[in-house]
Amino acid sequence: MTELAPGRVEAAAGLAVWGADRVPGADEVRAALTADGVPGRLASGDPTLWGREAEASAANRLGWVDAAARSRQLLDPLAELATELADLDHVVLAGMGGSSLAAEVIARTLDRPLTVLDTTDPHQVGRALADRLERTVVVVASKSGTTVETDSQQRAYRRAFAEAGMSDGEIARRFVIVTDPGSPLESLGLDSGATVFTADPQVGGRYSALTAFGLVPAVLAGVDVVELLEQAEALGASLSGEADNPALALGAALGAAATVDLDDGAGTGARRRDKVAVVDDGTGIVGLGDWGEQLLAESTGKQGRGILPVVVESPQAPGVTGDDVLTLTAGAPLPPAGVPGGGVPPHVAVNGPLGAQFLAWEYATAVVGRVIGVNPFDEPNVTESKDNTRAILRQAAPSEPPAAVDGAVELYGTSAGTLGRALRELLAGVSGGGYLAVLAYLDRVGDAGAAELRPLLARATPRPVTFGWGPRYLHSTGQYHKGGPPDGSFLQITGAVTGDVAVPDQPYTFGALQAAQAAGDRQALLGRGRPVLRLHLRDRAAGLAQLREAARDLSG
Question: How far apart are CA 555 and CA 53, in angstroms?
């Protein structure tokens, strides 16, 4: 960025939001919010803000507002645990969505080692199981205690420890459970002798950054989380104010962008900026977009409405701008001069310490729910893909011959005979207000090159392109895909399994579970009439190379 967003700066506790007032309609939206007393009511945990139908669920989901203060009770037991487990310096976090994303941002930003296992890919799981097992402690994180991915991972680690000759006591020492009180996972942890931290039941998973879900793995990875809590508490003092409230400014800007029609000046009709390009500005906070993506998409993508976050790799990457895209950069605290490095100046910039960022985005997302008229604390469409997965695991998915084979890639759901033609037709079919989502059921470490498809495809279309690792995205943008505006097109990528891993005491393997999750979500999307092109890589390395080359050719 050569300059920050124009407009006034609103700041508190080291967090600054630039340019929010320049978003069309933001001042009017903010005035309506303040007239209704929303800042003070939200800061005090008023569950009536989102309407009568949402009141019951909101009443049990507002603990994040002062979670930083309440989480201080975790500090002493966490410090003691970190000392007891000092010899186990390989920390593995088994968790999905809100149970892992915040901890990953904390560890990456503060440069602490943390292995996040949020996958069912057997290649990635198998490699993790073989990595420094004798020095490993596993944090098993799930609010419900029934998350199939997390349950499968803890089963696999339990068997791996046993096969390494460890006693029951040694195995129990290597598990730290984070879950809601009364969940099956809590019972399992207590019965087995593992350390159990019960999370705050008044906080939903995607709002849980500053609760046990974010803090337990961070502390074990060597992070001093006191500073994060202090940063959030300092910002918390501003949340009830009508002025000098950067979190309110951010929420009003996002809400206005998603609801206020703009005249494009070309006589082609009104449009809204209901897609938000979230760009890491390079100032030191790493991965905040991935966490913010699940927060915004899962909280707002329902009832045919919502904001689609588009996580963009850098200010210079394609896909930062668009007629219906609000460009937003995020990063660490900045001097007024802004960030050097080129790229398009954003509409809005959010800079400040990580603890304050977490709280500000949670507050802003709750405000957006109020503005666009949805309950920001439920996820009504998430269970469909899970139900489909369970049914497929019970009955086995029917075999489906590929529509065509091009080199190392099998094509499904298309009449095109070649990979290049299939991609071209998929991009051509993205609607004028729509988007393309790339969904990769692969190894996000071993097959990391798949993420290059987002910028490659973004160069070939004016429409926003998102990227998600499966099944991880099912716990974030999966809600938006099915419950948000019905204008998405989907590219699903699966890959051959060359070394499967059993799920102990279950009648399926990780490979079968991963395939069932891909098929289950595909069913849910196709059942809603969404276009889905599935590409299966017969050889992962060769197929990805071929796919990236085909994507490059589209923009050539």
Answer: 47
